């Protein structure tokens, strides 16, 4: 069975940093483009960052451009989200997702598998 397991999030002060990881199993990891999404209280799930299956390209939502960085280690079947200069507006449940042989997509419906989500809270 396919599993995507996010690392524990946590409580971080505004301006601080946090790195999330997502470990995949039950799939050929290098065949999947990977994405990070988030859902803030009272809002719809939104795309945050994505990385192509080859690792050759990345994409970010404007609000995190320059602050967040997505990366992957195919040897470890893991995708990461490095979050710097965190703001209160970044508070949300963060989800890891996988899309088979696709381009990076901002659309949740185009991803095949999802993690359970991890809470990130940024205090101001």
What does this structure look like?
The protein has 124 residues and is an all-beta fold. 0% of the residues lie in helices and 50% in strands. The protein has strands at 3-6, 10-13, 18-25, 32-39, 46-51, 58-60, 68-73, 78-83, 92-100, 113-114, 118-123. Strands 2, 4, 5, 6, 9, 10 and 11 form a seven-stranded mixed beta sheet that branches. β4 and β5 form a beta hairpin. 34% of the residues are buried. The mean pLDDT is 96.
Overall shape: it is globular
Helix fraction bin: under 10%
The total count of strands amounts to: 11
Radius of gyration: 13 Å
Structural class, from helix and strand content?
mainly beta
- Average pLDDT taken over every residue: 96
β-strand percent reads over 45%
Q: CA-to-CA gap between the ends?
A: 40 Å
Q: In DSSP terms, counting alpha (H) and pi (I) runs of 4 or more, how many helices? A: 0
* Pattern of helices and strands: EEEEEEEEEEE
Q: List low-pLDDT spans.
A: none
